[in-house]
Specification:
By secondary structure, this protein is an all-alpha fold. Helix content is about 80%, strand content about 0%. Helix 6 runs antiparallel to helix 7 and helix 6 (about 135-160) packs parallel to helix 8. The chain is elongated, with a radius of gyration of 20 Å. The chain starts with a helix and ends with a helix.
Length: about 220
């Protein structure tokens, strides 16, 4: 069943996915090439000193891109279902509304991962060329909150679109907006070292909100 759902979502989203994939990877490639240019005009010691003492992050300009990508993926996936009212048919399938929505969410999260993972791999490859091995840990600890924000943004968009009651929508929007802001408060590497696990847990919990909204929709609550 999941394979069928994934195929259906891929057919619907493949053009948008390709555009988002190209935009993210192209932006990441630009930042990587810019680091190469910086390296050509500066010594390695100068660049490493900027990293250690000034928190120089060559990928810093990418920090909002995962969130924007996640929000767009959620909107592009569920807006057609809402506007054409196909979601009503989906939620009345005999396999259960929570299972159906969960499969759609997993398909969307997988497609989102196929966009974000190559970008993270490119940043890791680039940093491995121009920075010492110790930078890799700083890279992942700094990049992870931004990637989690992409997943959280996707789940929040899905929740807002599947929710039919405006008071819940407003509550989710205010709560989600305030929480997502926390993902971008750090301006130095390792800022989120102690709270990263909490951010990951909060993102996982967000997965239950679209399921709750679909359950209430099915029951007419």
């Amino acid at each position: 069943m999941f394979q069928a759902t994934l195929y259906k979502e891929w057919i619907k989203l493949r053009l948008y996915w390709a555009l988002l994939f190209a935009a993210n990877l192209g932006f990441a490639a630009y930042l990587s090439l810019r680091l190469r240019a910086v390296h050509e005009f500066n010594t390695a010691v100068t660049i490493w000193g900027a990293w250690i003492f000034k928190g120089y992050l060559f990928f810093n300009a990418y920090h909002y891109a995962p969130l924007v990508t996640g929000l767009l993926m959620g909107a592009l996936q569920f807006l057609p279902e809402i506007f054409s009212k196909r979601i009503r048919l989906v939620l009345h399938l005999p396999i259960g509304e929570e299972r159906v929505v969960a499969q759609h969410l997993l398909a969307g999260l997988l497609l989102l991962t196929l966009i974000l993972a190559p970008v993270a791999a490119l940043f890791a490859f680039t940093s491995g060329i121009y920075f010492p091995a110790e930078f890799q840990q700083n890279l992942w600890l700094t990049l992870s909150p931004w990637l989690l924000a992409g997943y959280a943004g996707y789940l929040l968009a899905a929740t807002l679109l599947l929710e039919t009651t405006w008071r819940y929508r407003i509550f989710y929007l205010l709560l989600g907006g305030a929480a997502l802001r926390l993902f971008f408060l750090g301006d130095f590497y390792d800022t989120y070292l102690r709270v990263l696990s909490g951010f990951a847990l909060w993102t996982v919990i967000l997965f239950s909100l679209p399921l709750f909204s679909s359950y209430r929709f099915r029951k007419g609550l």
